[in-house]
Amino acid sequence: MKHHASDAHTLTAAYALGALDPAERQAFEAHLQVCEACREEVAEFEATAARLAAAASQTPPATAKAQVMAAIDGVRQLPPRLPAPAAAPALGDILRRRAVPLALAASVAAAALGGIAVWQARDAQELKQQARQAQRQLDTVSAVLAAPDARTVHGKAANGALTTVVASTRQNKAVFTAAGLPAPGAGKTYQLWLDHDGTMRPAGLVDHDGTVVLAGNPADAGAVGLTLEPAGGSPQPTTAPLLLMALPA
Predict the structure, then answer these.
(1) DSSP assignment of the chain
(2) pLDDT tens digits, residue range 86-112?
(3) How high is the pLDDT of residue 98?
(4) How many folded domains does the chain comprise?
(5) pLDDT under 50 in the chain at which residues?
(6) 87 in a structural domain
(7) For residue 215, what are the domain limits?
(8) Is the entire prediction scored with pTM above 0.70?
């Protein structure tokens, strides 16, 4: 089947997330050679997917490798599972409006599952508690990303961190992602704010790269702010904003 030339511009997210079949990928890569706008959009989608996937990532404990290797001898090996043949996806499926948020949600889910595998070396009670927390965050992030009205905006903080906000009016939620966020320093933390007609209301704390769900009600907020505050946060900003980014309309 031949496609209109304009169809290629709608495949940037699917290409960035590896969702094209070989023939479509080859054709789109040829299109990228002559389309600067698509090259920039692909780069943005790849960076956003990577940052959102960090929402559920976990640092493995130092003893994890030794414990896993010691347990291997006692684990029964299962035969390989062979997937049933599947038809190549139709272009119409790739071009669906919700392909982008659903694919991004899938990248977050993959990171969460990888983190859960590492948790098996931890105390069972701690594992259950952290798994529940991660699942709640994953559910909220996925719901925002998969919302039909999800909107995305990118920004850059004064300290060089790259930021992304995805907001959904239907879900009345917004998620904030940071990459390249410098360590806040001893006794300090980064605090997020929602700007309601000039009134800054606390929206959560963040001290490292990753994704957080903004606290509060983003429905009537005009912007998201980021400041450096004393550990534990402040009721009102005490420093100049490192970022004041308009919420996606």
Answers:
(1) ----GGGGGGGHHHHHTT-S-HHHHHHHHHHHTT-HHHHHHHHHHHHHHHHHHGGG--PPPTTHHHHHHHHHTTSPPPPPPPPPP-PPPPHHHHTSTTHHHHHHHHHHHHHHHHHHHHHTTS-HHHHHHHHHHHHHHHHHHHHHHH-TT-EEEEEE-TTS-EEEEEEETTTTEEEEEEESPPP--TTEEEEEEEEETTEEEEEEEE-SSEEEEPPS--TT--EEEEEEEETT--SS--S--SEEEEPP-
(2) 554 544 444 444 445 555 555 555 555
(3) 45
(4) 2
(5) 1-6, 56, 88, 90-99, 113
(6) no
(7) 151-246
(8) no
